[in-house]
Design goal:
- Chains A, B, C: This is Beta-galactosidase.
- Chains A, B, C: It catalyses: Hydrolysis of terminal non-reducing beta-D-galactose residues in beta-D-galactosides.
- The structure is a homotrimer of 678-residue chains.
- With 678 residues, chain A is an alpha/beta fold.
Chain lengths: 678, 678, 678
């Protein structure tokens, strides 16, 4: 893997000079404005295929070279994209196979973007040739720093080429068709396959209820996307460039399993478009924080914020302006969670088509005297002030499981609630509860190593990939605190139900067995009532909704019981010490206050080291650390100014000297790391 | 018709041992558990085609024979299914014509179930061959008791073969194209056909507004489904089996006109999946009761409950657990309404695919120590205790019309309200009002004979099949009490409007003519106010909603008038004696209380014999009778224990001695039928 | 253009005798009833193609001739339709190209109506031949008065023939592909075209986000529809008929740009189906009024109400009866706004198919003793009483811009709010405010000449067609009062953003520049607070919602400021005198009361002449005028009787003598026009 590190924060973003080649005065102004706004990085070429190769095989790179040179001469680096995110019309017209077929088996026409078959050999060949030529020309250019492969990979294709690849992929995985039939439970409804050749991808006009097929199809889509990406990376390497590569991920994107990109990209990058001012700011901040941590946890390295909006987006139902100070706060939040950049989409607004009203550093008016331009400049200045924190890492003592394969399987399963299982909400409540203790939190998949975590939240782990129950057992045995919840350990990696009791493989670890699960209508609720002598001293009654599991307790402390319905008095929260650790089991979808109070106690029980003694409402706490220094980021996403007392050893890097933090303000502090610390 | 009667209640349900052939220990345990749960009947082979005929023409029946034998040796009978509900992949791949074409003319891919063309000769040939072979092998097996033809027939196909059959069907019906044009009113919008060959089935991308075409298409779908079913029955007979046949119907299914199966099945059976605990239990019970009575009324014979869920379903938006006692109550409700069985889907949960979380007698855990298993056992024991009631019949003195052809036409017509005409609701209110008098109620079609009914409710009979007005006239003339409602008698059997006044043919019987109909927005309401001297002594004012018909009264008593709008003071309820009977006309969509109070009076006026003097809230009353004995079923679907006093001549068959019935509890009593009784 | 004027109001409507040819007694009764109801005009032949030409080339016109003669002999004129609105089955079967292809490129089947390709040469040839024959036979018949071309033109076709025409149309418009690429901004997402041949119409399975393409496609659809209509008109002229032509337009129809028909039709006609009694009557009346004025303004001549419903419609979600008096009020409203007719759909109800329950003068019952028949008769009588007003014109001193091209572009743009921009609502509020001053209002497009308007409301003029900014500038310079609003002047005629500031070309006229626009969630609101010294003496605070624009004020009076959010204190309403006129700028989506109060002041400031001194709530005021006489129409759409004092010079033409007007009642008065008046 190429080593990725910078000596300053990247500030800048997507730039489309090819739309302005006939306006040289605008191109000139742009660079002046970039410097004025402390912009040091631009992303070029993302949708430039039609300009780079206007006719098949005719490459026109001069304009790009001139832009890169001009930027470089002004100290601005280039992230260079491969243009595979949208194809020229001639390519689609001449080689129709490059266009996708949707799940209803309808061939798509040319249009939009991201509408190409990842399997098509022609598409791969054409982009390989172009990428290689780009690498040859720009791969060693001193102004070019990083490859931005394609753009926001996503979607799927059901064309005959993809069907064939899917069959090959299945054959490699299952070896025999009997094995596949067995794992997929195809005897149900007479769906047994006699050969891999008989298999077709899921379709709403065909097979749409064989969950194992659908799960494997989703896995295949991820792997085929990666396979395509590797073709692009190979082209770059063949072109002689050794620069690192990335591709920009999206917010909680269901279409791909990003953890599988871990060893493909040199640095993780993603596009963050939170809907600030829809809910309370602190609420949006928790939601964004989880995504930042999810991205950071993929490689457990600093990541890049590749896109964000300097003003209002234009594609949401309601596109609100960011209030003054919001841009700075959201930008520094990314940094606090581990980003080494603040990049925008877009530097200059396009004049036409679907994104013409998307916020930009420079808008159609074109002046640098706008509110947005000034706030962008403020961000640039702030990033320079905290330059010493660049490249520092995030160490987390606690983690929450949030796995895409589990999400896929859980949502596709026809289960107790088909309207909404509230999976993300359950993950988010536990993440928030840990964050409100002032802790860094890793957001991990089932593939992550668990060493070093003092607390591990495992909410609704419906699917256990092979051996996951053993990983959890070992984790507890060796002293970890596991918080497992309802609807866990029901199916194996092919969505086949475990027999003989659930949570599979962990009934002895938790001391309970799940016997039934009750679904509640949205207007129903139940309660968890504390048992008087529970060892955590929980004293409140909490509401639970949506799902209530019924447990048979064989060997566990019952901390709380249900308060209503025919299962009143039955266990709602249990605990068992196992090996050197603790196994908690939460039986129902509890309200947030429960998790807040539970984790407050568990943090103490598990001896998690707190960064700040008391975290007031609305305050977000993060640390980043080098070998010798720990940087503390404090941000106020509440509506009131509050004091956040910290120990005297800290020194101010950025922000006010006072301990009082105003709304949307940030303080960055540092202290030396003592060698004797645990 | 084969004679269907049993000497004990069937208890058991769908069983898919083909999913467990590699787990002989499970197959063994299953039978032990069946006996423990008093299960005496299993349904086999419903989706087994791919296992029965894994390659074209290669039949593998050994496994099935072994299962049937094993069950038989333990005293358990088999309902044997023909496997046409789902086809093997090889059949679809080799003969694509067997797959359906939807109404948009899109060929469906292999997948799901129930996705085959009923017209395809190849499909018919393949299933005929297999069915015949099954009949030859198992048709005389002493353990096999009944044929379960296919599964939940439904859906439609628009392939060229079906188009051709539809044209032939139309030609047979209309003889000349002029006749069809005339009946269908095709001159509207220039849709005249020059020959039957020009006709195509309705389509949202083609003809979708010619109501007569759509109505005939629905009729054709029913007849073609029956035609397909007859091929399967013929195969069974050719295979030498004389066992009775059935097919399982569905809850209020709009896709087929079940009354047309009357002479095709030897016994009616259906699948009941009420959503208990969503509304008040008594409300769900009324709704289920109507469906049971609808099914029973098809043949006016005991029916079979072919499927029901022992626990929670998995396909509803919210799948709630049944609270303790609910399974027993819902099972005995079926019996009270005339079922000779309580059968479940499913005996053992499948491990994979879309129904893996559907409730089952034996779940993935696999023990017999579960709550569900114990409640199933209770049902088995209860059925044995009331064994003497098996095969007894239901005699109803009152009936409600609920006709599928009417429902089709009424809903398709672009009429006063296109959002919702509240047809089912209107039927249900009248059914409930009669049930709350403690009466058995027949739910009948326009084809039923009306002799013997003292009261007949005819709500919203928009379409009159040929001669229906005469049937109603005779009914009243001979002494019946008819309650006809608004939006009745508007169109003939081809959805062509009657001229010269409505309700067609009954203006003299009712003494009124409907002049206009007002549609109300959901937020609007009107009132029906009693006339001081009305002969029924109605004294309350009732709300009406949705639809208010305006009447011209020529020769009728006006019992109630509208209270608001420009038609305040005009008739809302009228009455006329005609011949020896009474004709009531309800002009508006009245609230439930109106029907409750009306039928309380009509029951007295019509001298209907009451089974129980006073029916407390929540209590459901049914009787079943043999030649000599009448069995009274009393069930409490309310939230409180209540006393239901009954005459001393009754003797307890099942349940507590006390007259007080606790929630969800059932009492069964019997008395001798006096020969002198009317 | 043929001259269109009548000496009496047309009263009657659509009639389909071809559905009753086998019921001669009904055809006879119909004419008797027409006379009884004062019906003097019928529209024939609208969907008669299959009867007129039952086999290709075989024309059967005798029945039509007989009907026309019979009507004529009884003094009833005929509006004769060309039957292209629906085609016979043989035409679709023999020439599939006549059927449409939808935007997903799916060929439609035969069915419904209005489902033919406007480009198809065969369709054009067949209808041309038939139309010409009709013109030859009936074009000089003394009973025929007007050609009704096709019916409710609408919809679009994406077949290869249409694709080809679209490309030719584009080539004619843009000349070179570079020009098109430049105007359409195709460099965005690599969508550059290399030739016109590469272009395809928009599609949800292809290009759906290139706004300029979509806008031009919509324009093409209008022009191709007109091109088709011209073929029909040509046929009529070739057949020797010089009678005027029209085609019936629809309520606020988005599919066509009706202003382009201005010089194609001799008289504008339209079909009005308001949903009376859903909202308050006055509210529905304002909404209808706008549509009448929109239609009248196309040619600035009297128009025809071609269809309206004598009773309840049958195609709305809820189809309410018209309360007594409503039919007369709605009919006279059309006249008050400039209609020279009151025509219904339909004279006699059809027996079958989708419109069988649509209200009619004669219903299925068939008598003339119905409430509806009597109210129709009343309308006929009223029209005779006001006969002297026929042909008089409407003069408006004020106008509101409501342009279809703007509406298309505004709604398609991905902008600040994608849920709803509330464009029509903004137009309607300003229209209503002007109407409630008792004024005639023109509702105009960007193509209209602005001379003579004292006030011009320009709400949300997102798109400026070429030179529109100059037209507005001149208008103000020469003394007009312009009320421009937020979201104006953003894009040119190809939806390409203007650079260097908006509202484009009018920043100096208004003295402001729009810098940002904030979108509000539906639950949010802001306020406009009056500045103490504002010259209009506005004193109230008004709510604003949905959209709040932020202004940089360079040279304008700030009359009101925002009350909340970070832009509290910034301008919400500005004013500048420019040349001899006034330019107002409304920055936010203000509540109705604001417009009411604003226009009350502007009417005074601009010295608009008021027709009535005080307009009570619910009263609608219109005038029509000949050279010498002015007719004042006063209608009460409120719930209470109110007095409307008028000057003594008026004389009553119709209605009560008293100044008090009861709900749903109309008064028509007249006075001489003084030559000295301005």
């Amino acid at each position: 893997m190429a080593k990725v590190s910078y000596d300053h924060y990247l500030h800048g973003g997507d730039y489309n000079p090819e739309q302005w080649l006939d306006h040289p005065e605008i191109l000139k102004t742009d660079i002046e404005y970039f410097k004025k706004a402390h912009i040091n990085t631009v992303s070029l070429g993302i949708f430039s295929w039609a300009v780079l190769e206007p006719e098949e095989g005719e490459y026109h790179f001069e304009w790009l070279e001139e832009i890169i040179n001009n930027l470089y001469h002004e100290g601005i680096s280039t992230i260079l994209a491969t243009p595979s995110g949208a194809r020229p019309k001639w390519l689609a017209d001449k080689y129709p196979e490059v266009l996708r077929v949707n799940e209803k088996r309808e061939k798509q026409l040319f249009g939009g973007r991201h509408n190409h078959c990842y399997t098509s050999l022609i598409y791969r060949e054409k982009i390989h040739k172009l990428d290689k030529a780009l690498a040859e020309r720009f791969g060693k250019h001193p102004g070019v720093m990083l490859w931005h492969i394609s753009n926001e990979f996503g979607g799927e294709c059901h064309c005959p080429l993809c069907q064939q690849k899917f069959r090959e992929w299945l054959e490699k995985k299952y070896e025999t068709i009997d094995n596949l039939n067995n794992r997929w439970c195809t005897t149900f409804w007479s769906h047994r396959y006699r050969s891999f050749a008989e298999i077709e991808s899921p379709s709403t006009i065909g097979e749409n209820e064989l969950h194992a097929l659908k799960l494997d199809w989703k896995r295949f889509v991820t792997e085929q996307t990666i396979d395509f990406m590797k073709v692009e990376i190979a082209a770059i390497r063949e072109g002689g460039s050794e620069l690192p590569v990335t591709t920009n991920f999206m917010y909680d994107y269901e279409g791909l399993d990003y953890k599988k990109f871990k060893n493909v990209v040199d640095v993780v990058s993603w596009d963050n478009y939170p809907g600030w001012h829809k809910k309370e700011e602190w609420e949006t901040a928790v939601d964004c924080g989880l995504q930042h941590d999810l991205m950071r946890s993929i490689k457990k390295e600093p990541f890049l914020l590749m896109e964000s909006c300097p003003s209002a987006t234009n594609w949401k139902p309601i596109n609100k302006l960011k209030k003054p100070g919001m841009l700075l706060a959201t930008s520094l939040q990314a940094v606090a969670h581990g980003s080494d950049s603040v990049l925008y989409f877009q530097l200059r607004q396009s004049r036409g088509a679907s994104e013409k009203f998307h916020g930009a550093v420079i808008d159609h008016y074109g002046g640098s005297d706008t509110r947005v331009f000034k706030e962008v400049t403020e961000v640039g200045e702030a990033l320079e002030k905290i330059q010493e924190t660049i490249g520092t890492k995030t160490i987390a003592q606690v983690a929450v499981l949030y796995d895409r394969e589990n999400s896929w399987a859980l949502k596709d399963a026809q289960g107790p609630r088909n309207e909404n299982m509230y999976y993300q909400e359950c993950v988010l409540k536990q993440y928030r509860a840990l964050r409100e203790q002032g802790l860094n939190v890793d957001v991990i998949s089932m593939e992550h190593v668990l060493d070093g975590y003092k607390i591990l939240a495992v909410p609704m782990a419906y699917l256990f990939c092979d051996g996951y129950e053993e990983k959890l057992r070992d984790y507890v045995k060796q002293g970890g605190t596991l918080v497992l919840s309802y609807w866990s350990g029901l199916v194996d990696a092919t969505d086949r139900c475990f027999l003989f009791g659930t949570p599979y493989g962990l009934m002895d670890v938790t001391g309970i067995r799940s016997t039934e699960i009750d679904a509640l209508y949205d207007w129903e609720e139940n309660y968890a009532v504390p048992n008087p002598s529970n060892h955590l001293n929980l004293q409140k009654t909490y509401r639970c909704n949506h799902l209530c599991e019924l447990l048979e307790v064989s060997d566990a402390e019952v901390l709380m019981c249900y308060g209503e319905d025919f299962y009143a008095g039955k266990a709602a929260l249990t605990h068992k010490t196992y090996g050197n650790g603790h196994a908690y089991y939460v039986a129902a979808d509890m309200e947030y206050a429960f998790y807040h109070d539970l984790y407050k106690r568990l943090v103490k029980e598990a001896e998690v080291k707190l960064l700040v003694k008391f975290v007031p409402e609305g305050i977000s706490v993060n640390t980043r650390a080098s070998d010798k220094l720990e940087y503390l980021f404090l941000q106020n996403f509440g509506r009131k100014s509050v004091a956040v007392p910290i120990s005297e050893e800290y020194e101010v890097v950025y922000g006010e000297e006072s301990e009082v933090i105003a709304p949307l303000k940030t303080r960055v502090l540092k202290k030396k790391i003592e060698v004797n610390e645990e």
